[in-house]
C-alpha cells in the first residue's frame, strides 16, 4: 500500500527560524489538535535552538509527544551554517566539526558553542522517542555532516535529495524522496493531483512537508536580504486574523482529505514506516531508478540555496560529494 509521511518543521518565522514568537506556539498547538482530530500522526522536525525554547511551553510539549520527533540540526539559520562549517579541505575534519556542533548548544545571537545540547538536548526532552530522522535546514545537507549524524544515531534523511523517487539505503542511511511542499497551498489544491494521482500509483512513499510558521507570518522582502545577516533582527509581519483562519480552513481541508484517503485504504499515513527489505540492500542510489546518476546534478541541486539565497561560494564541498558517492 502507498504510504504518506506528514512532516512539519517546527521553527520560527522566515529569516528568524531560531527564534519562536509567542503567537506561533498557539499555532503549533492548533495544528497538532487538527492532527489529533483526524487521527493523523506526523514527524515533527525540531532544532536544538527551538528545543531550548519549547520546553517553556509544557502543554504544547505534551501535544508533541503524540507524534514522532525528528532532528533539524543544532541551529537553523545562524552562522556558521552546515554548508559553511563543513566546507573545509579535510573530509575527516568536516565530520569532526559536525560532531561537535551537533552535540552542542548554539548561541542564536552569535553562533558560538555554549556547552552540551543539539541532538542530545532533543533526546533529553523526549526520552521516550527514538530520534533517528533528520532534515537539513534549507535542505542544504553535506556528506561529512550526514556521516557525523549517522554516528550520532540518525538513520533517515529527509533533506529533499531528489536523487531517487523511492527511499534508498546507502552508507548506513535511508534517504527519502523529495517532499511535496504545501506552504503555499492557498488556492492550490493540485497537491492531491500530485500526491495521489501522479505519485501514489508509481511511488510507494510520499513525503509531505509544511512550515507551520507560514500560517501566521508573512514573508517580507527578499530571502537573500533576510539571511545575509542572520544576527540582525528581521521585521515580522503577522497575518490578519481573517488570513490566519483562511489558512487553517484550507489546511483542515487537506488533512481531512488525507484522512479520507487513509480510510479508503488508498494510503497509509505513518511517520514510522518499516520499509520493504529491498530498500535495505547497499546500492548506488540512482540504480533505484534504473538510470545512471549524475553526482554533479546532485551537488548543484543541494548547493542551490547556499549559492543563490546566501551568495555563498563553496570551496571543497563538491569534492566531498564526489567522495561520498564514488567510494
Structural class by sheet pairing and helices:
alpha/beta
Q: So, the CATH homologous superfamily?
A: Glycoside hydrolase/deacetylase
User: What is the correct CATH architecture?
Assistant: Alpha-Beta Barrel
Secondary structure tally: strands: 14
Radius of gyration: 19 Å
Low-confidence stretches: 222-226, 286-292
H/E element sequence: EHEHHEHHEEHEHEEEEHEHEHEHEHHH
What does it look like?
With 327 residues, the chain is an alpha/beta fold. The protein has a single domain (3-326), classed as Glycoside hydrolase/deacetylase (TIM Barrel), CATH 3.20.20. Helix content is 39%, strand content 15%. The chain has 14 helices and 14 strands. It has helices spanning 22-37, 48-54, 58-64, 82-85, 91-101, 119-125, 143-151, 190-199, 213-216, 223-228, 241-263, 295-302, 304-308, 317-326; strands spanning 3-10, 42-46, 68-71, 104-106, 113-116, 133-134, 156-157, 168-170, 173-175, 180-181, 205-210, 217-218, 237-238, 268-269. Strands 1, 2, 3, 10, 11 and 14 form a 6-stranded parallel β-sheet that branches. The longest helix has 23 residues, at 241-263.
Amino acid at each position: 500500500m502507498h504510504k504518506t509521511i506528514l512532516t512539519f518543521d517546527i521553527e520560527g518565522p522566515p529569516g528568524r527560524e531560531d527564534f519562536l514568537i509567542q503567537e506561533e506556539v498557539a499555532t503549533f498547538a492548533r495544528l497538532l489538535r487538527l492532527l489529533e482530530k483526524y487521527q493523523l500522526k506526523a514527524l515533527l522536525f525540531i532544532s536544538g535552538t527551538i528545543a531550548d525554547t519549547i520546553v517553556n511551553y509544557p502543554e504544547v510539549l505534551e501535544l508533541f509527544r503524540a507524534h514522532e520527533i525528528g532532528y533539524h540540526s543544532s541551529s537553523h539559520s545562524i552562522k556558521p551554517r552546515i554548508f559553511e562549517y563543513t566546507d573545509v579541505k579535510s573530509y575527516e575534519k568536516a565530520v569532526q566539526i559536525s560532531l561537535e556542533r551537533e552535540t552542542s548548544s548554539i548561541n542564536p545571537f552569535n553562533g558560538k558553542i555554549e556547552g552540551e545540547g543539539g541532538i542530545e538536548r532533543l533526546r533529553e526532552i523526549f526520552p521516550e522517542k527514538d530520534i533517528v530522522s533528520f532534515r537539513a535546514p534549507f535542505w542544504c545537507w553535506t556528506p561529512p555532516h550526514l556521516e557525523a549524524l549517522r554516528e550520532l544515531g540518525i538513520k533517515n534523511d529527509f533533506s529533499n535529495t531528489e536523487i531517487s523517487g523511492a527511499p534508498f539505503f546507502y552508507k548506513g542511511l535511508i534517504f527519502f524522496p523529495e517532499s511535496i511542499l504545501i506552504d503555499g497551498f492557498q488556492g492550490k489544491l493540485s497537491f492531491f493531483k500530485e500526491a495521489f494521482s501522479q505519485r501514489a500509483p508509481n511511488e510507494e512513499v510520499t513525503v509531505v512537508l509544511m512550515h507551520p510558521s507560514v500560517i501566521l507570518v508573512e514573508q517580507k522582502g527578499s530571502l537573500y536580504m533576510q539571511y545575509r545577516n542572520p544576527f540582525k533582527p528581521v521585521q515580522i509581519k503577522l497575518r490578519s486574523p481573517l488570513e490566519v483562519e483562511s489558512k487553517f480552513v484550507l489546511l483542515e481541508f487537506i488533512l481531512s482529505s488525507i484522512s479520507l484517503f487513509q480510510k479508503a485504504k488508498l494510503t497509509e499515513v505513518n511517520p514510522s514506516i518499516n520499509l520493504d527489505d529491498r530498500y535495505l540492500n547497499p546500492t548506488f542510489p540512482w540504480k533505484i531508478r534504473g538510470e545512471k546518476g549524475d553526482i554533479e546534478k546532485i551537488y548543484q541541486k543541494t548547493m542551490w540555496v547556499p549559492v543563490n539565497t546566501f551568495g555563498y561560494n563553496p570551496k571543497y564541498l563538491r569534492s566531498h560529494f564526489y567522495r561520498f558517492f564514488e567510494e
